[in-house]
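Anyone? Bumping this.
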Amino acid sequence: MRYDNPDPDSFNPLVWSIVRQIPAGQVSTYGQIASMIPPPDGIEPPDFDRLGPRWVGDAMNAVSRIDDPTIPWHRVINAKGGISLPPGSKSAVLQRQRLEDEGVLFGKGETVDLNTVGWEGPDASWLRYHGFNPPRPLRKPPEAGGQLPLF
DNA sequence: CGTTTGACTACGC
DNA sequence: CGCGTAGCCAAAC
């Protein structure tokens, strides 16, 4: 809603189709979802990097209005691993409850460990078929040989 | 009809 | 690692 999404009616369904792919027990982020969607006509990629995540948030907000039970909106959180809904709100409590029911644990700072429960993204073939881009990884790339330095 | 209010994120202290 | 800032619009109040 902020930063005028020129066409939410086209954009939102793209977001929802991706969100439906997130498996139980895992989470995605607004930014990661946006990273899979090609910039709409007329939106330059640098601008979309900035606007996309917000529009994804708007799309999630729209779910609460249409109440579509096929969209696991609770599996979309912010880049910090936290819930972006107003703390204590009915929706925020429900979101955390649903995630915990799926085995997603919240640690210090009311956040989840994206490196553990962060989604790797849809199948490559699914992405290609739907014309989406590969997702930005949420998990840190496996260190080739860094963790045990010397010796 | 003016104000308020956002389901964000990268980046710099 | 927590906190503040920029970006900069439309709907809901």
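Late reply, but here is one note on the structure posted above: The first helix of chain A runs from residue 8 to 19.
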